Amino acid sequence: MIPLLGDLLTGGGAAELTAAVLLLLGGAVFLICALVLALIDLREHRLPNRIIYPWALFTLALLPLLGLLLGDGSAVLRAVAAGLTWALVFLGIRLVHPPSLGMGDVKLVLVLGVYAGFLGWSAVGAAVVLSCLSGGLVSAVLLVTRRASRHTAIPFGPFLLLGTGLALLLS
């Protein structure tokens, strides 16, 4: 994301500058929603629709504008495909083993997949891997230190947000 922003800000054209401003706006919205959702999920073990739904609508409204400004309609299609793919995988996991994921996680990855998918499939892969690694690492530490057991519910939303945020920054 950072190299793309740099290219857009130094590109010189009005379309590039507008796209950079929209990307920064999208990043700011991501950061605000991520912080609020992570805190709520850590405290209450839920990801409220009243935050996820408006965030999803904002993101889906922003993408076509960015695609148009950047002349990259395929990025918009890829973003939607990535969000739907990640959400369908999580929905499948939820249906097979309901205690493993909440429906808030399923809805959240739809938005996160759209963000990462706009940058490319490698960003989506990085988001998934970093989310799972961070969640797994913290869970392992909690188990080893006996601060949690196999039956302790650990919210996954903060790790999904952290992993995707890192993937976006690094992509």
Automatic annotation (TrEMBL):
Gene3D superfamilies (UniProt xref): 1.20.120.1220
Gene Ontology MF terms in the entry: aspartic-type endopeptidase activity; methyltransferase activity
Domain Prepilin type IV endopeptidase peptidase: 29-138
Transmembrane annotation, as ranges: 20-40, 52-70, 76-96, 108-141, 153-170
E.C. designation(s): 2.1.1.-, 3.4.23.43
InterPro entries in alphabetical order: Prepilin_IV_endopep_pep, Prepilin_peptidase/N-MTase
Domain of life assignment: Bacteria
Keywords in alphabetical order: Hydrolase, Membrane, Methyltransferase, Transferase, Transmembrane, Transmembrane helix
Stored Pfam families: Peptidase_A24
Residues in the signal sequence: none
Keyword Transmembrane belongs to the record: yes
GO BP field: methylation
Family assignment from sequence similarity: Belongs to the peptidase A24 family.
The protein's name in its UniProt record: Leader peptidase (Prepilin peptidase)/N-methyltransferase
